[in-house]
């Protein structure tokens, strides 16, 4: 099940013109600021908005083809969609919400409920099927919405900011669960988000969209290492390092130890923003707790700063001003010391 | 007010202006100059709806006759008027379409003297122009295949109709019992009923859209219209002038032209 | 939970409004001839008129729901041109004097009317002066209340639920039935109640188009009006009966129907 789309759609002053391909089992994150046209793109893919030009095809079958006059209405498209604020129908029980899709697509009431119950079980809501959506927590509701989107085994899964309405703690749990379900999902997934952590954690590839156009595409790591625009640089570049929490330190899976401000335990992800990494020509005095020797593997200027890709025991991205970059005499291959304050390190449960 | 008017008859112009407390100062002043002895001010007449056209005409004549006199009307069903009067509505004259509602007013002690019958109305059959159903007389009201309207027994014309049917020995089969004559007539005008029993005056007022068929049996149930001035009349002089006009030769002629008959 | 006091700028007009609405009712109660109540209530025709009123108002409400909810949907959701004109036309019965509405119904559905004459010729059916005419007159006058109420509810409803339903395979009809309609159910209920109450009190269009005949077309308001001509005390009692029946019905429905809808 492969999605191939080139969507042209005008929304007021903004023209969205985006081409994308998503392979079977692949997750593509569409990342961009508010108003960039991400959700518009998703609505076109869902069939909720007619495009002004281009073509959308899944497995070679056209869903939209403006030139050929083809347009498959939304309800005929085998897809599942998860919305930012779940949009579970308030007048139906959670079970009937999940069974809604199978019912409209022709399943018997019993079969639809059976399938719905199985999916509720998979997302850990087996006991809550009889409740109304209003009686669920935010995380539970979003899990139910995921079950509702996935129950029909759709060819295409569309996720519209699925985590942004959740509080920080719930977000971690639902993100981890979403990651697990996306790994099991055989169809193509398009995830729209403005959060680089979601994109990095969930997507195989990232498409950065600004003002309706693709400004950069690639794996999350690629995009982070070589940001093409200021926006991308600010948005992505977070270094995510897996490790194991041991109190106020995290032992990294790739070697090395990171000191952290809050105690951590078990499998975690350490996140370090590039602007919080300082570079020194030699080991700085005052014995900072996080100081690692490294080598500049690449340098990409964007605006007045230069993003440096650091190779070493702890691989990091660092942003330094162009002036500092020149004063330090840095060039690819230069040895440096990377220093990060413990308070600048964020730890996520893995 | 009353003292103001007496002063108007006796005193000089300046005194009238100073003494008259009402809103008609200027009108009263000019009237006093034009006709020193005639009625002035406003006369309020409560009259049955069937009198609308004739009374409006007579009111205008009276106003032309007496400079500074204004006649204002409240036309409605007699029972509604009687209710308004017993609830204290200010009026000078009450003209009822029947004795029952006049009795309501006299029983409440609101009338000045005995009411007098000034005209009468008699029932007639109204049919749409051309008489498509070929109605000839009261007997047709008993026919199943016609759509006919009569007044509800609760309202005066219904009571009169019942008397007429009884006198004729006809059992009517009405499709609707109308709340007043005008409503019945509207249905005749629209051609929605084949016939209705209404007053002669209403047939005359409806013009060409409706034809009247005289009913001999109706002579037994002539509807008398009594009229009285009210004890609490704010303008007794004007009230008397209006009543006199209605009962005069001129007034009776106007009533006759509208289909009313002499009492 | 401590409730804040109602601010005086709201409380004073609200109290005035209550007084304005309730005092005439109190006036009716004061004037009610309680000693004659039994006689007046068991008078022939009272039960008949009451039954006819309730039945025809209920039928008018059903017709209004069946026709009016789809109309409200068209007004709220369709992008067709001339919607503003359509909405204005729909509200015409609200501003038209009901008696004029009755005459207008004659002109269309009367036996000389545009549709009515054709109907009479082809089927022999004439509508005026039948119970059907009562229902039609009441529907004409009362349906706009339902349409406006439901349209408001539809405009207030979150259309993204309809998007969600579409992504779950529901066509627009299924979406309307299974999502939109349940979401606006409180609005439909409120509209139906308004519509029913208006139909129950309908007088002018009914007496014009349906006439007045006990058992077939004489509803309570007509009976009250005629009683007023003859015996004002009987009219007060009849009004009271109509009032008690309507208030009791509305309270009952509120508990069963609106109460749940409002909580959802």
Would you give an account of this structure?
The complex is a heterotrimer of chains A (about 350), B (about 260) and C (about 260). With about 350 residues, chain A is of the alpha+beta class. Chain A has helices at about 40-45, 95-105, 110-120, 140-150, 170-185, 195-200, 220-225, 230-235, 320-325, and strands at about 5-10, 15-20, 25-30, 55-60, 60-65, 70, 80, 155-160, 190-195, 205-210, 215-220, 240-250, 255-270, 280, 290-300, 305-310, 315-320, 335-340, 345-350. Chain A has 2 domains: about 5-235, Rossmann fold (3-Layer(aba) Sandwich); about 240-350, OB fold (Dihydrolipoamide Acetyltransferase, E2P), CATH 2.40.50. In chain A, the strands form 4 sheets. In chain A, strands 7-8-9-3-10-11 form a 6-stranded mixed beta sheet, sandwiched between helices. The two termini of chain A are about 30 Å apart. In chain B, helix 1 (about 1-10) packs antiparallel against helix 2, helix 4 packs across helix 10 and helix 5 runs parallel beside helix 6 (about 100-105). Chain B is elongated and about 60 Å long. Chain B has 2 domains: about 40-120 and about 225-255, 3-Layer(aba) Sandwich (D-Maltodextrin-Binding Protein, domain 2), CATH 3.40.190.10; about 125-220, D-Maltodextrin-Binding Protein, domain 2. In chain B, the strands form 2 sheets. Chain B has a 5-stranded mixed beta sheet. Chain B has a 5-stranded mixed beta sheet with strand order 7-6-8-5-9. Chain C has a single domain (about 50-265), classed as Orthogonal Bundle (MetI-like fold), CATH 1.10.3720. The longest helix of chain C has about 30 residues, at about 45-75. The chains are: A alpha+beta (about 350), B alpha/beta (about 260), C mainly alpha (about 260). Chains in contact: A-C, B-C. The interface of A and C includes residues 77, 79 and 81 of A.
């Amino acid at each position: 099940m492969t999605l191939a789309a080139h969507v042209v759609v005008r929304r007021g002053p903004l023209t969205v013109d985006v081409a994308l391909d998503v392979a079977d089992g692949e997750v593509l994150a569409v990342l961009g600021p508010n108003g960039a046209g991400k959700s518009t793109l998703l609505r076109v893919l869902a069939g909720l908005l007619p495009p002004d030009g281009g073509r959308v095809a899944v497995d070679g079958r056209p869903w939209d083809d403006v030139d050929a006059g083809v347009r498959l209405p939304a309800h005929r498209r085998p897809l599942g969609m998860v919305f930012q604020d779940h949009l579970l129908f308030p007048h139906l029980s959670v079970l009937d919400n999940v069974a809604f899709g199978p019912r409209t697509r022709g399943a018997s009431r019993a079969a639809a409920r059976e399938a719905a119950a199985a999916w509720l079980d998979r997302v850990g809501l087996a006991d809550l099927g009889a409740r109304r959506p209003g009686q669920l927590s935010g995380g539970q509701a979003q899990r139910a919405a995921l079950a509702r989107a996935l129950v029909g085994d759709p060819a295409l899964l569309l996720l519209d900011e699925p985590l942004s309405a959740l509080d920080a703690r719930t977000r971690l749990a639902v993100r981890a669960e979403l990651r697990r379900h996306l790994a099991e999902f055989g169809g193509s997934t398009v995830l729209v988000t403005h959060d680089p952590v979601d994109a990095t954690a969930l997507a195989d590839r990232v498409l950065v969209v600004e003002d309706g156009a693709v400004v950069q595409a690639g794996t999350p790591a690629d995009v982070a290492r070589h940001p093409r625009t200021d926006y991308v640089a600010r948005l992505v570049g977070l270094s995510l390092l897996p490790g194991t929490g041991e109190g106020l330190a995290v032992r990294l899976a790739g070697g090395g130890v990171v000191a952290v401000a809050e105690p951590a335990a078990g499998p975690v992800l350490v996140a370090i923003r590039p602007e919080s990494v300082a570079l020194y020509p030699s080991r700085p005095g005052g014995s900072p707790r996080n100081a690692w020797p490294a080598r500049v593997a690449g340098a990409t200027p964007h605006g007045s700063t230069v993003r440096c890709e650091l190779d070493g025991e702890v691989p990091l991205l660092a942003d330094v001003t162009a002036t500092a970059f020149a004063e330090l005499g840095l060039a690819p291959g230069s040895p440096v010391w990377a220093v990060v304050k413990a308070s600048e390190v964020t730890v996520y449960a893995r | 007010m009353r003292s103001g008017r007496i002063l108007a008859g006796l005193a000089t112009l300046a005194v009238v202006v100073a003494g008259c407390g009402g809103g008609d100062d200027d009108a009263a002043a000019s009237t006093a100059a034009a006709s020193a002895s005639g009625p002035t001010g406003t006369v309020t007449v409560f009259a049955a709806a069937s009198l609308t056209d004739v009374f409006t005409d007579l009111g205008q004549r009276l106003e032309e006759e007496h400079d500074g006199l204004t006649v204002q009307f409240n036309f409605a069903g007699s029972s509604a008027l009687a209710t308004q009067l017993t609830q204290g509505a200010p009026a000078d004259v009450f003209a009822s379409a029947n004795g029952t509602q006049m009795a309501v007013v006299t029983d409440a002690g609101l009338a000045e003297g005995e009411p007098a019958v000034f005209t009468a109305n008699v029932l007639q059959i109204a049919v749409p122009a051309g008489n498509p159903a070929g109605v000839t007389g009261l007997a047709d009201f008993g026919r199943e295949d016609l759509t006919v309207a009569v007044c509800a027994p609760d309202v005066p014309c219904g009571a009169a109709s019942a008397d007429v049917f009884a006198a004729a020995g006809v059992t009517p089969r009405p499709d609707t019992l109308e709340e007043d004559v005008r409503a019945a007539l509207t249905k005749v005008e629209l051609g929605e009923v084949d016939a209705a029993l209404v007053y002669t005056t209403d047939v005359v007022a409806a013009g060409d859209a409706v034809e009247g068929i005289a009913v001999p049996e109706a002579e037994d149930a002539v509807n008398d219209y009594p009229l009285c001035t009210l004890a609490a009349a704010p303008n007794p002089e004007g009230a008397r002038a209006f009543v006199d006009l209605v009962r005069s030769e001129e007034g009776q002629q106007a009533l006759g032209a509208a289909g009313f008959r002499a009492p | 939970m401590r409730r804040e006091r109602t601010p005086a700028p709201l409380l004073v007009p609200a109290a005035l409004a209550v007084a304005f609405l309730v005092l005439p009712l109190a006036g009716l109660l004061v004037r009610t001839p309680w000693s004659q109540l039994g006689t007046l209530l068991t008078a022939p025709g009272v039960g008949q008129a009451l039954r006819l009123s309730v039945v025809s108002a209920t039928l008018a409400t059903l017709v209004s729901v069946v026709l009016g909810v789809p109309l409200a949907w068209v007004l709220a959701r369709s992008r067709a041109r001339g919607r503003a004109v359509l909405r204005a036309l729909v509200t015409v019965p609200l501003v038209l004097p009901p008696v004029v509405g009755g005459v207008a119904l004659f002109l269309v559905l009367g036996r000389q009317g545009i549709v009515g004459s054709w109907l009479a010729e082809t089927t022999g059916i004439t509508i005026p002066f039948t119970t059907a005419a009562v229902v039609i007159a009441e529907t004409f006058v009362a349906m706009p209340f339902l349409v406006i109420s439901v349209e408001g509810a539809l405009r207030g409803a979150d259309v993204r639920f309809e998007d969600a339903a579409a992504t779950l395979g529901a066509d627009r009809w299924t979406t309307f039935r299974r999502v939109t309609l349940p979401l606006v159910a409180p609005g439909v209920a409120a509209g139906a109640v308004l519509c029913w109450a208006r139909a129950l009190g309908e007088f002018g269009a009914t007496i014009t188009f349906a006439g007045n005949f006990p058992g077939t077309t004489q509803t309570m308001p007509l009976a009250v009006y005629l009683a007023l001509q003859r015996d004002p005390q009987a009219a007060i009692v009849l009004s009271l009966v109509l009032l008690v029946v309507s208030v009791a019905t509305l309270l009952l429905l509120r508990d069963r129907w609106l109460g749940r809808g409002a909580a959802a």
